[in-house]
Amino acid sequence: MRYKVNLKKTEEGFSVWVPGLPGCWSQGKTETEALENIKDAIQAYLETVDELTKDKESRYVEITNV
Predict the structure, then answer these.
(1) 6-52 CATH
(2) What end-to-end distance do the CA atoms of the chain give, in Å?
């Protein structure tokens, strides 16, 4: 799965966040480190969403023209 992420150079390195996942962000001293760290943040975010919605009625839809 691919996610669009935004990067911003800061005094400490790089901030990175996922516009499609509100509140999902990370950082790193280098751009490479920040991009690796956001992968962990995305996984933790999705695991948390699954945990919080495990007892809820859900459906899946597929988007094909993106």
Answers:
(1) 3.30.160.250
(2) 12
> Which of 47, 41, 46, 19 is closest to 28 using CA atoms?
41
User: Alpha helix (H) ranges present in 1-66?
Assistant: 31-52
What is the rounded distance in angstroms from the CA atom of residue 50 to the CA atom of residue 44?
A: 10
Residue 36 CB partners (closer than 8 Å, separation 6+):
28
pTM: 0.85
* 14-23 tens-digit pLDDT: 999 999 999 9
Q: Which residue has the tokens 């995305």?
A: 42
Ranges of each domain in the chain: 6-52
Backbone angles phi, psi at 18, to 5 degrees: -110, 105
